[in-house]
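Re: How this chain folds, sequence and tokenised backbone to follow

Filed under: protein folding, tokenised backbone structure, sequence and structure records.

Contents: The amino acid chain and a row of whole-number tokens, matched residue for residue.

Body of memo: The sequence and its backbone structure tokens, given next.
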Amino acid sequence: GELDIIMVPISFTEQSVFLSFCMVMVLVMNIYSIAKEVVQISQQRWNYFRDYSNQCDWTSAIFSLLFIIPLMLNAEGSLHWQAGAMAILNSWIGFLLYLQRFEGVGIYVVMFVEIMKTLVRIVMLFLYLMLAFSLAFHALMLNHKEFNTMPLSVIQTFVMMVGELNYQNNFLDAFLNYQLPFGILTYVIFVMFVLLMPILLVNLMIGLAVGDIAEVQRNASLKRIAMQIDLHTALEDKLPYWFMKRVDKPSITIYPNRKCSRHFLKQLISGEEEKDDVWSRLQSKSQTCSFIQVELTKQKSRMKEMSNILEKQHGLLKLIIQKMEITSEADEYDGPVNVRGSMWPSLSQAKARGSSTSRWVPLIKAIESKRK
């Protein structure tokens, strides 16, 4: 199914000066990139292999050399052209990964990487379901070129999974023209495929991938800040001490009300309105205080429960007092407010009332005798 390609080589000296200069620059920059990666391996050791952007850099440099060296030597064949295509793909992907350390657009790159990881895990889990339908269609639709071989059947089933069913050409026309050997069974499996794959599985993948977007965004912002710290720490370790001592600043002064040209350029490029720098810093810090907010909410609910319990106990004490026919001194005394007189009246005042003797009198006597 492939087309034969005949590559016509052009001599390095016969082509334009601009193309020759670009080819030399590609060769030099890729050799420099490989040397840089080797130095990073000697400095970072095993931590170097944990960063997937380094693998992308190696792939781009190797494929670029496999493309540019045969092209400069006028080699025959088309394999180096395919290596060039892979080099272009990996170079732009690596450029996208480098953008995740920047403040403006880096959070979206990190979010994209996190969602892609979730999507890959889901696809790997449900790969068996796709293989099941691919094998079934390959066995039942014998006269169709889309399902003629096993790889073509898998690719066609994958395309059908994202919504490109092509029902009329693949199923309806073949069934009406009596070209479908197992028509009823094929339609039963096709209906099961439509219910399980495009409707159920694709919506499940979308829901799991982008459902919890707020949590992904919060984690992405923290991860971007961590990547910036790692980058700055690595750069500080590589630079000499005398240079770091010269450029290091023990303190920095921020003038939030002072206008600067960079704010205008940022507003012009991003299209967003200018925001207060201090307020934006406070908002970014407030996102990391979720644990404190949860604890404060818990304490607030506990205080509410305690106040409710106290109110219930207060009502219960009132009922006990009424049941025992105990009259409080606040109910008996109807005069000006006097804290000591209303709460703890003297013994002479208790005797003067004579008409209604309270049951609190023995307690008051005991307290006054203790004071004396």
Summary: Residues 249 and 269 are 30 Å apart (CA to CA). The first helix runs from residue 17 to 44. Confidence is low (pLDDT under 50) at residues 270-279, 337-348, 350-356. Residues 102-241 form one domain.
